[in-house]
Amino acid sequence: MQDEQAMVFVVDDDESVRESLESLIRSAGLRVAAFSSAREFLASPRDDVTSCLVLDLRLPGQNGLDLQKRMTELSIQIPIVFITGHGDIPTSVRAIKAGAVEFLTKPFRDQDLLDAIHQAIERHETVRQHQAEMAEMLHKYELLTPREREVMELVVSGLLNKQVAAELSVSNVTVKVHRRQVMQKMGAGSLAELVKMSEKLRTSPTRSL
Amino acid sequence: MLKKSSQSYRFWQSTALLLSGGAALGLLSFICFRLHVNSTTVGLLFLIVVVLVSLRASLLSAALVAIIAYFCLDYFFTAPLFTLGMNQALDYVAPIAYLLIAVVITRLMQRVRKFQEDQKRAEETLRKSQAELAHVRRVMTMGELAASIAHEINQPLSAIVNNGSACLRWLAGDAPNLLEVQEAARRIVRDGNRAAEVITRIRGFLRKTDTEKSRLDINQTIREIVTVIEREAVESGIEVRMDLAPDIPQVLGDRVQLQQVVLNLLMNGVEAMAPITERPRELLISTRKHETDRVLVTVRDSGMGIDLESLEKLFDAFYTTKPNGMGMGLAISRSIVEDHGGELWAVTNAGSGATFQFTLSQQR
User: Fold this and answer.
1) Looking at residue B205, what is its pLDDT?
2) Å between B232 CA and nearest CA of chain A
3) Could you give all domains of chain B from N- to C-terminal order, each with its CATH number?
4) Contact (Cβ atoms closer than 8 angstroms) between residue B150 and residue A86
């Protein structure tokens, strides 16, 4: 499965805990990289693979919640599994609200941690798939000519070819040609698919129609 | 009661001042009359008497002295002699001046006295709250210490659990990875030792810094700590009584630790009486001489009492009957008392409630 290349990052300042987590996660057949501080983790180069982060809440300097916030700012979308020595409810609520997958209190059952890790990895997989689809779609969109983009916009807004032609002051035939080009370039099988794509592109943060 | 006695003291003081003021005026009149001192000088001398009396006496006494002074002056010194009447300027000026002085000075002194009292009371309150704060801080330090111990031990403990789980996983399956198993087992031993070290360190720390034994008056020690819980007890509708025997020997002990024990027993009593409504809530703390050279301290409440089953486990660590209790109070209290060479035990009362008792000795 995806787990074979999946990467688990561990950030915990306690050497004993860090080493034990490394061994435990390795024993489940996952790759591990451990760090003793938030800064060390952020500074290390990360491969672009499916991954998750097992993060201690109490860290010297930047604590777990700070790192979570910083990662959001840097749009690092690696899902987080929090671990803590003393789990108080307000903190765990904050962490979960900010997108953490799970909040475990030390000592925890190994199965609980591994379940949370798998869940986090799955989540990252979904995110990455979505991102890849998005990137591909954007790439296709980039290939359209300005006139084709105009035609696409009007077509998905529900206008008939005749109306589009009138709007752009071109002939009906020209619109039909452009429309076929758009469908082909975007890889859309039907008008409904094209509408869906334009919708997704509209919500994309990097590009607006 | 205190207020009443100070009021009667003020009354007698004023009366005495009135009488001695009158006597002084009489004496002065006699002497000045014999020496033929002129009326203005006598008026001034009388003024001094009025001022002196006003400094300490009540308004009424001061006014009476002022009137007496005026009559003496008018009768013996202003012409026509041996008559009372408004004949001269001095006859008008003197009474007004005397009365005015009496009123102004007594009022002023009243203000000054009130100000001094307020200040004294404020100082008292400040001292009291500082003492309370010091106690609270000590209790807090205990709590923080417990939290820090919990964290220090939890880290190696959770590492051991993880390593143990990892061991089992590496051993499972057809081809166990013995190298990994060995490493994990080695870490288990290391982290177990680390946890033990933490405990050793804390023991040493507690022994070194926390006990400072000296000879102390246990009654005084108890009185100090009772003031700390008094307000809370009153608010909970509890009557705290002290029955401290005066003829008991001094004991050797750590004041703060013994106060922690007493505070703990008192607070337990307060909490045990919270649900009681059908009988008076009473908390009695008493001291008695015990055997030849020992002291027995007793804390008795009229609360819910203790059932037989709880009585056995009462002093075990982490045993608690309270919803939010840690179960450490009595365990710590017993170890403190035993460290002082004494014993701590509990009995249920014949009527209602429970009694906790501990002994202390003159030497370890």
Assistant:
1) 58
2) 29
3) 2-123 (no CATH), 136-209 (1.10.287), 214-361 (3.30.565.10)
4) yes
